[in-house]
Amino acid sequence: MIPQLATVRYRRPDGRPLRLYIPILPVLLVLAPLLLPAGLVACVIFRVDPVGALRGAGRLLWALPGTRFEIEDGRTAFLVSVR
User: Residue 7: CB partners within 8 Å, gap ≥ 6?
Assistant: First the structure.
């Protein structure tokens, strides 16, 4: 299943929390006109098969649901959760 929502939680050093909800599909649709040409240029520069790169990016995107990424350093905390 393709991920639907990314939740970003950030606790500032002063203790105030900030929570952002990022819908994955609309963001990808808005950024697609920029990402596709940039990806093709990168494939040409690094001599990578564009179809293989696209397949790998799709597999990575498909594996994201359920991923949690968390960093804490002192009073600052950063959490990314993909649903």
Answer: 19, 20, 21, 22, 79, 80, 81, 82, 83
Q: Tell me, what DSSP letter sits at residue 81?
A: E
Secondary structure of residue 9 in the 3-state scheme: strand
21, 80 in Cβ contact below 8 A? no
Cα separation of the two ends of the chain: 10
The reported pLDDT for the residue numbered 14 is: 85
Would you place residue 61 in the very low, low, confident or very high pLDDT band (cuts 50, 70, 90)?
confident
Looking up tokens 């098969």 gives 49
Which run of H or of E encompasses 82? strand 76-82
Summarize the confidence of residues 10-39 as an average pLDDT: 90
Contacts of 3 (CB under 8 A, 6+ apart): 24, 61, 64, 65, 82, 83
